[in-house]
Amino acid sequence: MTQPLIRSASKRQFLEALGLNGSDPSTENKYWLMKEEAIRAYQTQLQGRSDLLRPEYKNQVPPYGAAHFTLAAFGATIQLIYADASPTTRPYYNKGRFHGGDNWVIGWMLYHVCRYRDSRNVRANSRNFHDDDDLDVSNGGTLTTRIHGFGKTIPLNRLTGNVAASTNSNQATPNTAFYDPARNGFRR
After folding, report:
1. Inter-residue contact 8 to 182 (CB < 8 Å)
2. Computed over its alpha carbons, how large is the radius of gyration of the chain?
3. Do 146 and 152 touch, CB atoms closer than 8 A?
4. For residues 186 and 52, what is the distance between their CA atoms, to the nearest angstrom?
5. pLDDT, tens digit, for every residue of 127-174?
């Protein structure tokens, strides 16, 4: 069992907490297996289910964020993911178990799957829809992402998700902030 992370923690923090190396291609495959299990559970258990919303969100229109669902519905989905886990993902899920039946590893992943369906998120319409957690502001503000399956890092336009026209490191990168609802603040 590892120390739980808050659900709004970054992908880098998530991988480090599980003892995984983010630059290792096998880590990317394990991460995507966990992500795919969470997406599948979201689609079958939560997507469009207004009957599972907390009372204050009963009039909310889809897509729903993680906070919109009752704790019971979110917890039941976490348990379903654990029960259906593959032999590859189960050891990592076992690291996230703690007393009370919740699982912070699965909870983090499911939270992020819900997060990118939440229309308040600036990146919700990006081309990297299922994995904007790969987006990382680094190297002096250059926004990059890994292309799933190819192990390449490419520069992206900060808000549109389009491949940048130039990869020249001498070119100034716009210093554009965006609102991140999961962290309740602006980020660069």
Report:
1. yes
2. 17
3. yes
4. 30
5. 444 444 544 433 333 333 443 443 444 343 333 333 333 344 444 444
Question: How far is it, in rounded angstroms, from Cα 168 to Cα 63?
Answer: 38
CA-closest candidate to residue 110, choices 135, 87, 84, 136:
84
Q: CB under 8 Å to 77, separation ≥6 — which residues?
A: 41, 42, 45, 46, 110
pLDDT of residue 101: 65
Neighbours of 107 (CB within 10 A): 22
Terminal-residue alpha carbon distance, the chain: 33
Mean of the per-residue pLDDT values of the chain: 74
Q: Dig out the tokens for 134 from the structure.
A: 């790969």
Three-state DSSP at 14 gives helix
Summarised one tens digit per residue, pLDDT across range 97-136 is 876 668 999 999 999 998 876 555 445 444 444 444 544 4
Query: What residues contact residue 173 under an 8 Å CB cut-off, 6+ apart?
Result: 140, 141, 142, 143, 158
Q: Is the dihedral of CA 124, 120, 70, 89 positive or negative?
A: positive
- The one-character DSSP state at 49 is -
Burial of 37 (0-12, 13-18, 19+ CB in 10 A): buried
